[in-house]
Design brief:
249 residues, alpha/beta, seven-stranded parallel sheet, 47% helix, globular
Length: 249
């Protein structure tokens, strides 16, 4: 069984969806969890309550991680609260879909700012502590579209492709200090968004998935928990595809 006892983790965008499930899974494996989301989030405090109900420590630390100073403040507050940070999960992300010819500068910039710049800001801030303690796990939630692209998502695909490239670069930079950097690339995961798709669209997507069904948020959280564990100590610079065989690379 994966044992994350005595580990302190930060999950950005941890108030709902995949982030919420990751936060809960890390707590189930014994980790203390910092749930990061925007100030005023009604969801993040509920996740903290769920974790504390399991007998684990947790805290909601708000901050807009697309702003460098706020990302650093989240990390520093986590360290001052719990003494250290061992695991960072760069999960926060948004979509602003449109065909490239119709995409506004604002939609391009906002997606890149949160999905990619935010992950960089958080990673940069936390690495100072991980390098000093000579142990750490950087885990970024990428996407299948960062590997194969997707029409109507030039900004999102660019952010996730950049996240993969950044992960591989960081893995090379910090390996000698006992820190690993990996990415998880989900395919089509059953969420509120996929449930809103028409039956015809869902059927078309399912035909592209060799396993024949959508993944669950638990599938993604399980991959993160593994990469955060000591069992994954010899894995770095890797992109773990969680996509039912959609992209076999």
């Amino acid at each position: 069984m994966i044992d994350l006892s005595h580990r302190v983790s930060i999950v950005t965008g941890g108030g709902r969806g995949i982030g919420r499930t990751i936060a809960l899974r890390l707590a189930e494996q014994g980790a203390t969890v910092v749930v990061n989301d925007l100030a005023g989030s009604a969801d993040a405090p509920k996740v903290v309550e769920e974790i504390e109900a399991k007998g684990r420590q947790a805290a909601f630390i708000p901050g807009d991680i697309s702003v460098a100073e706020e990302a650093s403040a989240v990390v520093e507050r986590a360290v001052s609260t719990f003494g250290k940070v061992d695991i960072l999960v760069n999960n926060a992300g948004i979509t602003r879909d449109n065909l490239a010819i119709r995409m506004s500068d604002q939609d391009w910039d906002r997606v890149l700012s949160i999905n990619l710049k935010g992950a960089f800001y958080c990673s940069r801030a936390v690495l100072r502590h991980m390098i000093r303690q000579r142990w750490g796990r950087l885990i970024s939630i990428a996407s299948i579209v960062g590997i194969v692209g997707n029409a109507g998502q030039a900004n999102y695909a660019a952010s996730k492709g950049g996240l993969i490239a950044m992960t591989k670069t960081l893995a090379q930079e910090v390996a000698s200090r006992g820190v690993t950097a990996n990415a998880v690339a989900p395919g089509f995961i059953e969420t509120e968004m996929t449930q809103k798709l028409s039956p015809n669209v869902q059927e078309g997507l399912l035909k592209r998935i060799p396993l024949g069904y959508f993944g669950s948020v638990e599938d993604v959280a399980n991959a993160v928990a593994f990469l955060a564990s000591e069992e994954a100590r010899y894995i770095t610079g890797h992109v773990l595809n969680v996509n039912g065989g959609m992209a076999m690379i």
